């Protein structure tokens, strides 16, 4: 079948404003949208810029807006989106070129929640053990691949890039409820302000956008409860 791609192009060094460019490529129903971008880049227009690496929904590098919805290009098949596909960069981050955005503000928010295990108690012989139930408490948020699909689908983030954003909150959740960690109080303090968890308006865009099916809005709600009650359990 023939598929028409309408791709938002922009090179800040040469273009006054973004513009759409159309390409028609041969495709199979089970081709990924990423396959089609590769066809364009390798055979038609080598200047087209986008990030990709693993091709299998693991690295998180190819988040983009596909027919107006944040998706990973490697996880969307042609048969799911039809023969006319509009592709744009994710919103709320500056475009470096075409579909490549500046991820640094996103990673700055990520770093602000201390996304690593904190525990200065002497380690026991062997390893710091936890029960299957303790591990299950934060299992959902371990699935995050930092693709930014959730944060850049969030109107609160579009309104203010100062908002810490759902991805950083998910990463905080992963450690706050880890029985081996000792920095939950500090993380809750980081998130307890108007640019933290209270900026979320529960519209679930983040949950809908997550390619790993993480219950993002639920995780944000659990952190709010911990802040309000002072309990981390
Ligand atoms: S290329 Fe790695 S997640 Fe899509």
Describe this structure in words.
Helices cover 31% and strands 15% of the residues. It is α+β, with helices and mostly antiparallel strands and 233 residues long. The strands form 2 sheets. It has a 5-stranded mixed β-sheet with strand order 2-1-5-3-4, with helices on one face. A hairpin with a 2-residue loop joins strand 3 (63-66) and strand 4 (69-72). The longest helix has 14 residues, at 216-229. FE2/S2 (inorganic) cluster is lined by residues 52-55, 57-62, 72, 74.
Per DSSP E runs of 2 or more residues, the count of β-strands stands at 7
Q: How far apart lie the N and C ends?
A: 53 Å
Which structural class do you get from the secondary structure elements?
alpha+beta
**Mean pLDDT score:** 97
As a percent range, the share of helical residues equals 25-40%
> What strand order characterises the main sheet?
2-1-5-3-4
Total helix count? 9
Strand content: 5-15%
Low-confidence stretches: none
Radius of gyration: 20 Å
Give the overall silhouette.
elongated
Element string (H = helix, E = strand): EEHEEHEEEHHHHHHH
| Main sheet characteristics | 5 strands, mixed
Bound molecules: FE2/S2 (inorganic) cluster
């Amino acid at each position: 079948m023939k598929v028409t791609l309408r791709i938002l192009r922009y090179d800040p060094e040469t273009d006054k404003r973004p513009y759409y460019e159309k390409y028609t490529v041969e495709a199979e129903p089970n081709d990924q949208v990423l396959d089609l971008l590769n066809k364009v880049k390798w055979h038609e227009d080598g200047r087209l810029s986008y990030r990709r690496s693993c091709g299998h929904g693991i690295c998180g590098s190819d988040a983009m807006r596909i027919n107006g919805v944040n998706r990973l290009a490697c996880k969307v098949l042609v048969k799911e989106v039809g023969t006319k596909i509009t592709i744009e960069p994710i919103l709320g981050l500056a475009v470096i070129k075409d579909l490549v955005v500046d991820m640094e503000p996103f990673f700055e928010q990520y770093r602000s929640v201390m996304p690593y295990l904190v525990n200065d108690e002497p380690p026991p012989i062997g390893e710091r053990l936890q029960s299957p139930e303790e591990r299950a408490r934060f299992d959902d948020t371990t699935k995050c691949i930092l693709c930014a699909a959730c944060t850049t689908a969030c109107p609160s983030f579009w309104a203010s890039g100062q908002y810490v954003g759902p991805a950083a909150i998910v990463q905080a959740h992963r450690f706050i409820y880890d029985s081996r960690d000792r920095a939950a109080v500090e993380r809750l303090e980081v998130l307890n302000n108007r640019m933290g968890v209270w900026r979320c308006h529960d519209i679930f865009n983040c949950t809908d956008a997550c390619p790993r099916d993480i219950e993002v809005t639920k995780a944000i709600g659990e952190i709010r409860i911990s802040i309000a009650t002072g309990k981390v359990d």
